[in-house]
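User: quick one, fold this
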Amino acid sequence: MAFSMQETRRLILEIIKRRGQVTVDDIVDELQRRRGTITAVTVRHHLKLLQQEELIDCPELRRRNSPGRPQHVYTLTEKARVFFPNNFERLASGLLQQIRLHLPDDGVNVILEGVADHLAGDLLLPDSSFEQRLDLVVDHLNEHGYDAFWECAKDGGYLLHTSNCPYHQMAVLDEALCSMDMRLVSVLLGVVPRRTESVVQGDERCSYYLPAENGGRLVQE
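Assistant:
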């Protein structure tokens, strides 16, 4: 039975996820049992593509217990974990709901501000131009799934855009998470931004305006 290249790679990821580590022979055997004829050459081709997409690690050599040449062993990367179901969003939503039930609004805000400070991490911004600092902040946000970029505004200020909300479904139910993102941007850049677009409000992205007068220096705490 023939099946598509995309489906083949998905099945290979499922096989590696279930077994932890596999060889080409392991994958061939299982795919043949489940879907029909497939060759080792074809499997290696798919593994190469998955490796290029950073979904599987570089293979390691494993010696056989029986006579024969060592085989390469393949494992998943952390990036591949997002392809499999998890309960993180439901857990986080439940935690936020319980926090709201047991704390006043200002107490919830304190907790979310603390989360923003944690997400800001230990990013150290050099004493350089604001644009260089923006580049570092964009890299930091992208490491956390925000798909961020910046551009110059017409009045000499700056616009920071985030095209992806890592917790969009939760933010729709509780806009306090949008305030958490405002805090995150403020902590990272040392300036207080003004939101001009919001995904929760129906815009294609979240955008933050940074005025020109703050563009050359950090606001002192």
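User: anything notable?
Assistant: Residues 35 and 156 are 59 Å apart (CA to CA).
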